[in-house]
């Protein structure tokens, strides 16, 4: 996995590094920014030519203006409860019958530090049901997971933001708050054009203030990028670390007068955010409380052309609402094994 990520990051780095000077980049490359991030972006003119603005439960122009200024939008009641309940039922099946499945989980517990990513079949049920667990790319296994990831309400907005076909890159599903320090996704999530990246945080239950809710700094997508010592991407050659990154973001946002907001939304609501929005996970003040979440990352067709685990192979695509997600080339036998979503 690490060698594949290194290869993809190398592609991204070469794209945004001067061949003459070979200096690491310290900002996004302006000519390759999504159109909406450029100084002359004309949202009304764009929407006159955009075919997907009709039949949405929100005002697309209003949301795009808000995104441009703040780096995020919230879509109320974007995902039906029926779909969410089906997804959660499948996760419970995955946990209960974990010996049958190969889905990967990341375990952020001290006893798993040497080997934090494992198939669920190799992890005790008690651990799978607890905090510090992230189910990786469960959408590979689940039809309803793909349908939620590429729901029309999400895809239409992001296709307008990118001005391009949307590609679902990866997903994380978890029961408890992440308690992750402040960060920006582009430093860790690899797209060949780093600015062509967005994410969705989908609430699988109502969020409680004591459950370690997500927080974010509106407008932080415009602050100067953090330099890890070798550029804006964190990797094995970086001389600074994620804690330095978090400190920089918190301090810079505060100096800029950007106010931290806490995300207290309801089941089925969706937060969509920009690649450079500074955000994190608050402290869990009541360990009994869950914060069931489905987080998905997206790129554009021009910026994400191959599955990250097989960057040199033409991907097999699943298409929903005019957007694509790639079949996992390493676990084809696990693709869509939870198939009830076909009839929903």
TrEMBL record:
Entries under Gene3D superfamilies matching the protein: q2cbj1_9rhob like domain (2.60.120.620)
Keyword NADP recorded: no
MF-aspect GO terms: 2-oxoglutarate-dependent dioxygenase activity; iron ion binding
InterPro entries referenced in this protein's UniProt entry, alphabetically: Phytyl_CoA_dOase-like
Alphabetical UniProt keywords: Dioxygenase, Oxidoreductase
Pfam families associated with the record: PhyH
Required cofactor names: Fe(2+)
Name of protein: Phytanoyl-CoA dioxygenase (PhyH)
Organism: Spirosoma endophyticum
């Amino acid at each position: 996995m690490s060698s594949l990520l290194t290869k993809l990051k190398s592609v991204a780095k070469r794209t945004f590094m001067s061949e003459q000077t070979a200096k690491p980049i310290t900002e996004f490359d302006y000519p390759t920014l999504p159109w909406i991030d450029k100084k002359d972006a004309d949202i009304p003119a764009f929407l006159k030519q955009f075919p997907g603005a009709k039949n949405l439960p929100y005002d697309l122009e209003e949301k795009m203006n808000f995104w441009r200024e703040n780096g995020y939008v919230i879509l109320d009641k974007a995902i039906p409860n029926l779909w969410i309940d089906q997804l959660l039922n499948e996760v419970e099946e995955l946990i209960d019958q974990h010996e049958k499945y190969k889905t990967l989980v990341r375990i952020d517990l001290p006893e798993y530090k040497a080997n934090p990513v494992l198939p669920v079949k190799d992890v005790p049920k008690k651990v799978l049901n607890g905090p510090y667990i992230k189910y990786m790319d469960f959408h590979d296994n689940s039809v309803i997971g793909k349908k939620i990831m590429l729901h029309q309400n999400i895809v239409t907005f992001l296709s307008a933001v990118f001005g391009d076909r949307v590609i679902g890159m990866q997903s994380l599903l978890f029961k408890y708050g992440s308690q992750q320090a402040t960060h920006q996704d582009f430093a860790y999530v690899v797209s060949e054009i780093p600015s062509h990246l967005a994410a969705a945080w989908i609430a699988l239950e109502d969020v409680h203030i004591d459950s370690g809710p997500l927080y974010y700094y509106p407008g932080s997508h415009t602050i100067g990028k953090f330099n890890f010592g070798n550029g804006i991407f964190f990797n094995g050659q970086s001389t600074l670390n994620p804690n330095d990154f978090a400190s920089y973001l918190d301090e810079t946002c505060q100096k800029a007068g950007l106010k931290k907001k806490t995300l207290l939304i309801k089941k089925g609501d969706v937060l969509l955010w920009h690649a450079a929005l500074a955000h994190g996970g608050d402290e869990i003040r009541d360990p009994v409380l869950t914060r069931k979440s489905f987080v998905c990352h997206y790129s554009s067709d021009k910026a994400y052309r191959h599955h990250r685990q097989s960057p040199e192979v033409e991907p097999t695509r699943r298409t929903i609402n005019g957007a694509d997600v790639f079949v996992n080339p390493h676990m084809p036998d696990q693709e869509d094994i939870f198939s009830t979503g076909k009839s929903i």
